Structure formats: structure tokens, C-alpha cells
Amino acid sequence: MMGRGRKYWAGLGDDPFAVRPRASERHDRMIPMINVVFLLLTFFLIAGTIRAGDTLRIEPPRLAAEGAVDRQSPVLGVEADGTLYVQGRPMDGDRAIAALKEALAGAAGKALHIKADRRTPAAIILPLLRRLRDSGIEDVYLIAVKTGD
């Protein structure tokens, strides 16, 4: 009665009752670990936000209060030396305003967000705001970083 469908371990000596586990039984122990790995992968894919890194060398000013920023709105970047960027592309003043008007055209409720370096002097920001207002762009917000309390 020794050989009825049971395979014995080769290295267990003469013990006829030592049963080698089937291959499917060995692999069944891996299934819960695989499930956990896939669940974690799915969680991080859904929970994580994938977006391009910020390539501008602009350090926004600090603020004490916080508000929501619409990520769909166009962004005008202003470096400390007055260099303008629209959606990350450098442009001169007239081209930047034209590109911003085009981005805001036909989009009800969209506002322009200005991301200016905190070292940018007011002598650069104020004339820029006047030019934006004169061109018809009046809904403008300044992006700032909340300071730690």
C-alpha cells in the first residue's frame, strides 16, 4: 500500500509517511502575498498624483492664510529679473499677454494665476498688472506658499 499516488521525499530516509507537498500547494501560499502587492500597487496608482515637475526657478512669496488654486487656469511665471513665462515657456510681454488672453478666451470662471518670485520688485509686478487689466484680464490671483506655523 505504499505507493498509492504519494510521492516521497528523496532525502527523508525510510519514513513511508513523509509526504511531499504537491506543487499547487506550495504555490498557493504565494497568492495572498501577490494579492497584497497588487492592492498596494493599485492604491498608489490611484492615490498618487502624476504631474510634470516645476522647471521654473521661482520661489513664491509666503502667506499666512490658504486658498484653493484652480490647476486648470493658466499660470504666468515672473522671475526676479522680470522674465515672463506662460505655462512654463519664456515669452516677452506682448506675446505673453496674447497667449494668456487666448488661454482665457471662452473659459467662463477661469482666472489668471501669477507665480512671481518673492524677490521680484513691485516695480515689475505693478506695471504688469496694469498691462493685464488694460488688455481685459481682470481676474488675477497671486500664487503664494503657506508658511509653517
Structure in words:
By secondary structure, this protein is an alpha/beta fold. It has two domains: 1-50, no CATH class; 62-146, Nucleotidyltransferase, domain 5. Helix content is 32%, strand content 15%. It contains four helices and seven strands; from the N terminus they run ααββββαβαββ. It has helices spanning 23-28, 31-47, 93-104, 122-134, and strands at 62-63, 75-78, 84-86, 89-91, 112-116, 140-142, 145-146. The strands form two sheets. The protein has a five-stranded mixed sheet with strand order 4-3-2-5-6, covered by helices on one side. A two-stranded parallel sheet has the order 1-7. The longest helix is centred in the N-terminal third of the chain and has 17 residues, at 31-47. The relative contact order is 0.14. The mean pLDDT is 77.
- SSE pattern: HHEEEEHEHEE
Class from helix and strand fractions: alpha/beta
Q: What's the number of helices?
A: 4
Percent range of helical residues: 25-40%
Indicate the proportion of strand residues: 5-15%
- Low-pLDDT runs of 5+ residues are none
Annotated CATH topology of the largest domain:
Nucleotidyltransferase, domain 5
Question: Which oligomeric form is depicted?
Answer: single chain
CATH architecture of the largest domain: 2-Layer Sandwich
CA-atom Rg in angstroms = 31 Å
User: What is the mean pLDDT?
Assistant: 77
In the CATH scheme, the class of the largest domain would be: Alpha Beta
- Characterize the overall form: rod-shaped
State the separation between the terminal residues, measured CA to CA: 79 Å
Strand order of the largest sheet: 4-3-2-5-6
Q: Got a strand count?
A: 7
- Major sheet details: 5 strands, mixed
